[in-house]
């Protein structure tokens, strides 16, 4: 469902050009759980952002469900993001001023779903991450692990087909990290495609596929990934 | 955008929002009261005075030597002056009067029906001693009776009959005609059209006129002049010189068109309206600056929040609208507070100046003005805010 | 000192980095202060007390000594000659003076052009009570009819070209008067001795003649005069003295509490006696307002100035709030630098000094702006309300007040954001 063709991304500042992504070729099929690894500054987050249409790219093409995202307007991109993609950030990125429920409802709101439906689905998602009892809390009243679970609930409430997670366990201790991983696996089992950036080799091994990125390029290990090779 | 969420995020910034509301409220209160005051002044400046304001002039003067202030020397002076003015091109009619119309106060006295003193007494009725052309100069129509043509003297005492304006006559003699009736000041000879006499009187249309010699010119006297249409300025420019030529032993205290006199009546109101209006504009300016800085600041401070929302699928337009809605909500809430504040200010002002009450549609109008100003000021910062890169904003360092 | 210049330089650099927010802050602050100051000038001057040590000892007795009956009338605000004589029968006051004003024409001789003048017709105590400074000559010993004139310094200079003109003759309305005294510079603002009908905003008179001379020569009052019987205004010498022709202000000086009480008692007794004699048909209503309160008593406080004062005060508050908000935004955008300084070891004290430099700079800018706007504002108000023109004066007290106010405002505007910026959680800011 995701197809990157020869995709490149360059950051230009006054002083330097950073080739964050170079000629990326990547295909991800429905239901996969892809772990994205690589050294710091190698372009993992950038790749994820491009996949999430948060960032534009310079060359190549990105096909989502067979359709190119090139040339889509801001509104179309936003709608696409809203309906198909869920984000989990390393820093949780919950909105401080909103209650948990409001945070989770937010993407549904942008989709124009009715209030009662919204509430039902948000509660279901909260239920799934085991925080339904605290639906009226504010993010600052939760622990880091709990906040990340809320972030996950928000990401899945809209039942996206793709979940993009950038070091979702980076700020958590190992117990919490395991819980979050289990949650992601459970979501994956329900059919959601997941791309997750991680530094933890154990976590990476639990994914159905590992992709490594070095200096903006998919490294050999990934290139010769049997599954990827087969699909290509 | 959801009202509920907007309210929630506003409530979490109580101090700043509160202060902003107070400011909006004060702006609206001031704006409203300025409008009301300006409206009142405008109305007063356009009221019907019963006089031809543009084509009438008044000149106040006083003889500088006591000899000229005594009759018969004075009568001679008056005749010479009026004749000279009448001879000026563009002059239609001229008359003397102890005081001009359109004044705050002046010479006045009480007037009553001697048969019914208690109930008919009217205080502060302006008293005019004029030459017979007075009515012609002011173009006042006779409604009843006949205008006296000359002073009436008895044993050297002036017993000239009275000419009353219509509303005064009706007030004094509610039942039937006033002509021929006796008052404490003499017999009524005629009733004429209303005209604006003195503002401080019971009713500015109450006037009592006698065709009579001037009572005393120690307080000065006036020559009233009516000109042909469009000739007022030309005549005004020559009057002083002509009068000096007739007799130089005079001081010209002032020379004004009736229009000027009328404007002077409401000078204080006009001044206050101008100042309040100016202040309202400044206040709007300040509100715009504050809306601008507020929106700008928020855009900066909430970059992350906006980034998250963008990542979750909010388009630029949605964010833009959201920022605007927040501002509008603030403005409308401030406007509601402002309506209350306006009433309070209205009360406060009415204790020191006369100001009419606020009508219901004015707050709506003022709110609209406020909304437009706030929107204009929010535009640029909101544009900037929406161009926040979601990738950067959601990045954690 | 050098350190201080360093702080100023740092302030200046941070202003230059973001000039628009700073300019807006200063602009809004100046606007609020300037507008407030323009109105405060009039408010302060109109309400100032020209005789602070004495204005609570001078009183204006007013009684219902009138031929008409009125249950809830205020006593007339001008007195008749006859009533003043009745009040003068008391020897309780330390000083007393009746007075009114009129118009006249001065000239050196019958060939000269007339100079219109305002004349005050009064008694010798007028000059003592109000502490009028004398340059040359002496005031008349009493107020009997004499063709003797007292001139203001300006008028003496205008008529004769010099001030030492005692003994010289001139014509007042074609009658010959001898100059007996010349006053030194004197301006009583507001002119509290004649405050009826808002007259306190006028200038003091340039020419003074004895009260009795005024009555004998038929000088008609040029302000309020009213009659409650058939008195002829033009017959001051006869009707004016005996009938109910009211036109006089009358001031008595009562130095002590005891004197004041005794005088109240005297007025009460007088009212009773008059009642018995059938000359006081109305209920007793004796008033003895002090000079300090006379404008309020006559209801002559300027409503417009007051209304505008209310509004400018609101405006100042709004501007202050706005300026501090703007300044907060500015500080928050500079916060990183602030925190860095702290992290690099600047003490709170040093940061406070830095802040003081900021405040001083802001004060300098704001006061320049405020003075400009204040100047424009007073000019505009003078144009719109020329009646108050005499009161558009800036004196030292006012200027100091403005300076203090500006400093306080700048401090407020700088303090709150600076505190937030400098004493906030250090770590968090460095992280952000
Ligand atoms: N907005 C930007 N402007 C300029 N360069 C950028 C920008 N964002 C990222 N880069 C550069 O792009 C490269 C890739 O960054 P990226 O954030 O994708 O790294 P990463 O693999 O996620 O690293 P980490 O594991 O540390 O999070 C880096 O060299 C970074 O400096
Ligand atoms: Mg990263």
Describe, in plain words, how this protein is organized in 3D.
The complex is a heterotrimer of chains A (232), B (397) and C (432). By secondary structure, chain A is of the alpha/beta class. Chain A has a single domain, classed as P-loop containing nucleotide triphosphate hydrolases (Rossmann fold, 3-Layer(aba) Sandwich). Chain A is 39% helix and 25% strand. In chain A, strands 6-7-8-3-9-10 form a six-stranded mixed sheet, sandwiched between helices. Chain A has a four-stranded antiparallel sheet with strand order 2-1-4-5, with helices on one face. In chain A, helix 3 crosses helix 4, helix 3 runs parallel beside helix 5 and helix 5 packs parallel to helix 6. The longest helix of chain A has 16 residues. Chain A starts with a strand and ends with a helix. The C terminus of chain A is likely disordered. Chain B is α+β, with helices and mostly antiparallel strands. Chain B has two domains: 170 residues, no CATH class; 109 residues, no CATH class. Chain B contains 13 helices and 13 strands. In chain B, strands 3, 4, 5, 8, 9, 10 and 11 form a seven-stranded mixed sheet that branches. A four-stranded antiparallel sheet of chain B has the order 2-12-1-13. A two-stranded antiparallel sheet of chain B has the order 6-7. Chain B is elongated, with a radius of gyration of 32 Å. The model of chain B has no long low-confidence stretch (mean pLDDT 89). Chain C has 432 residues and is an alpha+beta fold. Chain C has two domains: 178 residues, no CATH class; 240 residues, no CATH class. Chain C has 14 helices and eleven strands. A six-stranded mixed barrel of chain C has the order 3-4-9-6-8-7. Classes of the chains: A alpha/beta (232), B alpha+beta (397), C alpha+beta (432). Chains in contact: A-B, B-C. At the A-B interface, helix 1, helix 2 and helix 3 of A face helix 1, helix 10 and helix 11 of B. The structure holds adenosine-5'-triphosphate and magnesium ion. The site of magnesium ion has 3 residues of chain A, from helix 1.
């Amino acid at each position: 469902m995701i197809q990157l063709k020869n995709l490149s991304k360059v950051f230009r500042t006054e002083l330097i050009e950073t080739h964050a992504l170079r000629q990326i070729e990547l295909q991800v099929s429905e239901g996969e759980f892809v772990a994205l690894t690589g050294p710091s500054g190698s372009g993992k987050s950038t790749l994820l952002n491009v996949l999430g249409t948060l960032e534009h790219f310079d060359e190549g093409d990105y096909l989502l469900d067979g359709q190119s995202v090139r040339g889509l307007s801001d509104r179309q991109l936003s709608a696409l993001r809203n309906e198909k993609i869920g984000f989990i950030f390393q820093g949780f990125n919950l909105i401080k001023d909103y209650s948990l429920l409001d945070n989770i409802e937010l993407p549904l709101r942008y989709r124009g779903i009715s209030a009662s439906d919204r509430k039902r689905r948000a509660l279901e998602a909260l239920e799934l991450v085991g925080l339904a009892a605290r639906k009226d809390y504010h993010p600052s009243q939760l622990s880091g692990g709990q906040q990340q679970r809320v972030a996950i609930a928000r990401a899945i409430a809209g039942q996206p087909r793709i979940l993009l997670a950038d070091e979702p366990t980076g700020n958590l201790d190992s117990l919490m990290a395991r819980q979050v991983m289990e949650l992601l696996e459970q979501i994956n089992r329900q059919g959601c495609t997941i791309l997750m950036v991680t530094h933890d080799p154990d976590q990476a091994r639990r994914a159905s596929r590992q992709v490594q990125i070095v200096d903006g390029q998919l490294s050999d290990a990934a290139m010769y990934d049997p599954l990827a090779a087969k699909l290509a | 955008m959801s009202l509920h969420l907007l309210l929630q995020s506003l409530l979490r910034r109580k101090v700043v929002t509160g202060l902003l509301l107070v400011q909006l409220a004060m702006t609206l209160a001031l704006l409203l009261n300025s409008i009301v005051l300006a409206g009142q002044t405008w109305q007063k400046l356009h009221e019907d005075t019963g006089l031809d304001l543009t084509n009438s002039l008044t000149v106040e003067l006083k003889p500088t030597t006591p000899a000229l202030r005594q009759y018969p020397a004075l009568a001679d002076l008056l005749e010479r002056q009026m004749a000279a003015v009448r001879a000026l091109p563009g002059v239609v009619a001229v008359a003397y009067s102890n005081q001009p119309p359109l004044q705050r106060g002046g010479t006045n006295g009480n007037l009553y029906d001697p048969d019914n003193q208690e109930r008919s007494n009217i205080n502060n009725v302006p008293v005019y001693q004029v030459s017979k052309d007075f009515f012609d100069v002011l173009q006042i129509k006779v409604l009843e009776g006949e205008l006296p043509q000359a002073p009436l003297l008895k044993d050297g005492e002036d017993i000239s009959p009275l000419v009353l304006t219509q509303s005064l006559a009706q007030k004094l003699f509610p039942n039937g005609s006033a002509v021929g009736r006796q008052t404490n000041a003499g017999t009524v000879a005629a009733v004429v059209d209303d005209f604006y006499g003195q503002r401080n009187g019971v009713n500015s249309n109450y006037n009592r006129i006698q065709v009579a010699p001037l009572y005393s010119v120690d307080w000065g006297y006036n020559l009233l002049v009516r000109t042909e249409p469009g000739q007022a300025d030309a005549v005004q420019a020559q009057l002083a010189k002509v009068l000096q030529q007739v007799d130089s032993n005079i001081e010209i205290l002032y020379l004004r068109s009736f229009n000027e006199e009328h404007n002077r009546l409401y000078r204080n109101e006009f001044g206050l309206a101008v100042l309040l209006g100016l202040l309202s504009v400044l206040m709007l300016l300040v509100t715009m600056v504050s809306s601008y800085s507020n929106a700008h600041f928020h855009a900066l401070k909430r970059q992350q929040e906006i980034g998250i929302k963008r990542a979750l699928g909010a388009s630029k337009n949605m964010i833009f609208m959201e920022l605007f809605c927040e501002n509008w909500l603030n403005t409308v809430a401030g406007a509601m507070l402002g309506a209350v504040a306006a009433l309070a200010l209205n009360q406060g002002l009415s204790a020191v100046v006369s100001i009419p009450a606020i009508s219901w549609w004015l707050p709506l109008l003022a709110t609209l003005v406020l909304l437009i100003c706030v929107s204009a000021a929010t535009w640029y910062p909101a544009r900037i805010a929406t161009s926040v890169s979601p990738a950067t904003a959601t990045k954690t360092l | 000192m050098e350190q201080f210049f360093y702080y100023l330089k740092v302030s200046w650099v941070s202003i230059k980095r973001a000039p628009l927010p700073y300019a807006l802050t200063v602009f809004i602050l100046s606007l609020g202060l300037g507008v407030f100051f323009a109105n405060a000038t009039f408010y302060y001057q109109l309400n100032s007390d020209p005789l602070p040590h004495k204005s609570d000892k001078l009183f204006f007795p007013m009684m219902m000594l009138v031929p008409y009956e009125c249950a809830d009338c205020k006593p007339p605000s001008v007195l008749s000659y006859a009533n003043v004589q009745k009040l003068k029968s008391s020897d309780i006051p330390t000083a007393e003076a009746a007075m009114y004003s009129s118009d006249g024409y001065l000239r050196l001789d019958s060939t000269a052009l007339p100079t219109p003048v305002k004349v005050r017709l009064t008694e010798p105590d007028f000059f003592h009570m109000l502490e009028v400074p004398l340059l040359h000559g002496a005031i008349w010993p009493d107020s009997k009819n004499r063709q003797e004139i007292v001139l203001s310094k300006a008028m003496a200079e205008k008529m004769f070209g010099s001030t030492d003109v005692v003994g010289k003759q001139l014509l007042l309305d074609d009658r010959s008067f001898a100059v007996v005294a010349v006053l030194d510079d004197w301006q009583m603002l507001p002119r509290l001795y004649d405050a009826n009908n808002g007259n306190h905003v006028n200038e003091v008179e340039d020419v003074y003649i004895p009260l009795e001379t005024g009555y004998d020569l038929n000088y008609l009052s040029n302000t309020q005069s009213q009659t409650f019987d058939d008195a002829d205004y033009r017959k001051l010498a006869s009707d004016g003295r005996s009938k109910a022709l009211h036109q006089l202000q009358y001031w008595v000086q009562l130095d002590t509490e005891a004197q004041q009480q005794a005088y109240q008692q005297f007025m009460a007794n007088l009212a009773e006696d008059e009642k018995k004699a059938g000359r006081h048909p109305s209920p007793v209503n004796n008033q003895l307002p002090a000079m300090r309160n006379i404008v309020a008593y006559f209801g002559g406080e300027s409503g417009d100035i007051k209304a505008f004062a209310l509004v400018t005060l609101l405006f100042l508050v709004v501007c202050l709030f706005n300026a501090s908000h703007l300044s907060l935004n500015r500080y928050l955008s500079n916060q990183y630098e602030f925190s860095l300084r702290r992290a690099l070891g600047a003490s709170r004290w040093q940061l406070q000094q830095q802040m003081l430099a900021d405040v001083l700079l802001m004060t300098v800018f704001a006061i320049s702006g405020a003075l400009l706007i204040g100047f424009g504002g007073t000019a505009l108000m003078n144009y719109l309300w020329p009646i108050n023109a005499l009161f558009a004066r800036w004196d030292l007290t006012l200027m100091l007040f403005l300076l203090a106010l500006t400093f306080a405002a700048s401090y407020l505007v700088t303090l709150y954001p600076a505190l937030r910026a400098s004493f906030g959680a250090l770590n968090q800011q460095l992280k952000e």
